[in-house]
Amino acid sequence: MDNAYEPLSGSRSSIRGLQKTIIESIGRTLVGGKILPGEFLPTEPELGANYNVSRTSVREAMRVLSAKGLIEIRQKVGTRVQEPEHWNIFDSDILRWHHEEGRGDAVMLDLIELRQILEPAAAKLAANRANMDQHRSLKLAIQTMQDQLDSPEDFARADLDFHLAVYEASQNSFLLQFGSVVSDFLRRVFIIQQQAVRGREALELDVQLHNEVYEAINRGDGQLAADTMLTVVLEGKSSLIEALKSGANSNDLSRRGE
Amino acid sequence: MDNAYEPLSGSRSSIRGLQKTIIESIGRTLVGGKILPGEFLPTEPELGANYNVSRTSVREAMRVLSAKGLIEIRQKVGTRVQEPEHWNIFDSDILRWHHEEGRGDAVMLDLIELRQILEPAAAKLAANRANMDQHRSLKLAIQTMQDQLDSPEDFARADLDFHLAVYEASQNSFLLQFGSVVSDFLRRVFIIQQQAVRGREALELDVQLHNEVYEAINRGDGQLAADTMLTVVLEGKSSLIEALKSGANSNDLSRRGE
DNA sequence: ATACAACAATTCGTCATACCTTTAAGACGA
DNA sequence: TCGTCTTAAAGGTATGACGAATTGTTGTAT
Question: Which residues pair with A16 in a beta bridge?
Fold first, then answer.
């Protein structure tokens, strides 16, 4: 009953079992603000006692949290929560924790603001650089969107695939990484966007816009690709804001057992 | 004057001693491409033997590398190098390792490409949002640049401070994080840029450009701030390319003991 | 021969315990 | 008041043993 669902989270994190439990639990506690920056965590033996695990496991979990910038570990001093500006926000786990702790809205808005900046630029680069495989990926994503107008989940996934493909086609390693880090989080955002009661026409319009981006990239028209992509992102932004306002808030996706 | 030298790396990583040694060594080995993606690392006991440390320390180091996305650890299978697209490129250590392993040039160019995208946008946001403290930081950085025309190192640092202040003033958590992650690496880039024999006039022109950005932000003229900032970044880009071509390559900065 | 079930071997995962190293903080003396 | 010494608290490292997961193989029945 415990790993029963893995709802949308990446279980590919290569860490399982006890440590994963500790990392998740403490990570969420910190991101959720239950221990404030500057404050101390219990000592390693104490944590071990709390979770009924050995100090070894606690320490390995702490190393991971430290690598994510959440905590600072100092000998003789103890383990202290870092200021949020040190948190590695380009980390899928931290993004997910924000979401699960109900602090996802602000992050989502910042993220969309960033997408407004990055995605048009990525589309422009893609127009000049995309190779054959990447053109194919783009087209495939569009077609899948078209085919899945009635399946919100699959539609969202195809939508995501399209945007990731654009990042990839930009041939910039940072943009590529950004896409892959953010993809889990973005999938959630897309699903929320769809909760805004958008009729079938709205979805079809969305597909058409995406298709225009695709064709602009295909023709090598960077400027048009960028402009259209900006429209796509802004369109999504307003859907998201609408969905957030209309109550169906983030947290209904983040519930889970434990 | 004792933290005075810390060559250029951030030793603030809260990890010291044995583990740090292992992390650095293996991290550089992987980023340097000496073990290819998909290949296996030695088993934990073997690594322990190689480095003359206990399995405990090896494992804690591995956890960190795994959190950075460099390796994938699986029970009974072993530890395998991940594909580069999984590497967390928004990580100061990984950026530094790229640099130290002589693979920094490509990364630097991708990074500058990203700055061309992000910084004008950040400047535009800053023009609308910067608070009083942030205005002060910007002004202070400009003045320091002006004062340090003869001290390349200090000039570079002030230059960096200015750009970081712009990210901060954008009030977007992702942009802020990006600045802080990239700052170490960027400092190196700025120093390299200065190796392009730029006379005093060139530096003064640079200061003047930065100042125009500052004033545009001050007046709340987002568009002008963005345009001028783009000029600044492009100016830096051409200096960097010139410096890279003229031989004085990256690696003379990355030498160190050990 | 093929399919499937049981088993063994390997590698990471966890545990318990002991001791080392660093460093904050108080005691002490100049 | 200042600098030095002592000490105790917290993390850092070392061993050795056993647990758990997964792969590959062996063996058996069809």
Answer: none
A73 backbone dihedrals φ, ψ, rounded to 5°: -110, 125
Residue A33 has which token pair? 């603000």
The dotted CATH code for A11-86 is 1.10.10.10
B interface test, pick of A90, A170, A178 with most B CB neighbours within 10 Å: A90
Please count the other Cβ atoms lying within 10 Å of the Cβ belonging to residue B237: 18
The yes-or-no answer to whether B17-86 and B103-253 have a common fold is no
Beta-carbon separation of A173 and B121 below 8 A: no
Instruction: For residue A123, give both structure tokens.
Output: 């589309």
Nearest Cα neighbor of B182 from B200, B208, B164, B162 is B164
Tens digit of each residue's pLDDT, chain A (258 residues): 333 333 333 445 778 789 999 999 999 999 999 999 999 999 999 999 999 999 999 999 999 999 999 999 999 999 999 999 899 999 999 999 999 998 888 898 999 999 999 999 999 999 999 999 999 999 999 999 999 998 888 999 999 999 999 999 999 999 999 999 889 889 988 888 887 767 788 899 999 999 999 999 999 999 999 999 999 999 999 988 888 887 655 444 443 333
Q: What is the CATH number of domain B17-86?
A: 1.10.10.10
Nucleotide nearest to B76 (CA to C1'): C11
Burial of residue B5 (CB within 10 Å: 0-12, 13-18, 19+) is exposed
Architecture of the B103-253 domain: Up-down Bundle (1.20)
Other Cβ atoms within 10 Å of B7 Cβ, number: 10
**Largest pairwise CA distance in chain B:** 63
DSSP code, position A71: E
Q: How far apart are CA B222 and CA A150, in angstroms?
A: 42
> Which token pair is B102?
């002589």
For strand C, the positions having any atom within 7 A of a protein Cβ are 9-18, 21-24
Q: Is B247 left (phi over 0), alpha (psi -120 to 50) or beta?
A: left
φ, ψ of residue A81 to 5 degrees: the values are -75, 130
End-to-end CA distance of chain B: 23
CATH topology of domain A104-253: Four Helix Bundle (Hemerythrin (Met), subunit A) (1.20.120)
Chain A residues whose CB is inside 8 A of the B121 CB are: 117
User: What is residue A13's DSSP assignment?
Assistant: G
- Contact between chains at A181 and B88 (C-beta distance less than 8 A): yes
Closest-CA residue of chain A to B177: A85
- Give the closest residue to A179 by CA, choosing from A190, A197, A166: A166
